[in-house]
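dumping this here so i dont lose it
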């Protein structure tokens, strides 16, 4: 299993970024996927999840209405569109494969290496 994130960077408050996660080594279309972030000095925070078919999504209250998760199963790729970014969104963002034995978004069995997002003026 390999998950490779990209698309992070430095952006001003109010700006946008689109993160991508390229998946390989497993049947991507069969698994629910999540984005999780970790800010400096803090524990991991689940951000958003999407079911295997891409028709059901969920968001943390902190990003609801600003972030959009999506996936392209033909391209084995997960996305996170982030709009109206705030300084408190600064973190390393990870894509993660949801543990197929769990019904919780907080249980993931594989993670990528992460991509840094910094929101600052």
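and the seq i came up w/
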């Amino acid at each position: 299993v390999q998950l490779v994130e990209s698309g992070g960077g430095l952006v001003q408050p109010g700006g946008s970024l689109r993160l991508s996660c390229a998946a390989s080594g497993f049947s991507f279309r069969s698994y629910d996927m999540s984005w999780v972030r970790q800010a400096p000095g803090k524990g991991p925070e689940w951000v958003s999840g999407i079911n295997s078919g891409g028709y059901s999504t969920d968001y943390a209250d902190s990003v609801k209405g600003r972030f959009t998760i999506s996936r392209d199963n033909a391209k084995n790729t997960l996305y996170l569109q982030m709009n109206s970014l705030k300084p408190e969104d600064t973190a390393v963002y990870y894509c993660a494969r949801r543990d197929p034995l769990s019904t919780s978004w907080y249980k993931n069995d594989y993670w990528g290496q992460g991509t840094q997002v910094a929101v600052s003026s």
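The mean pLDDT is 97.
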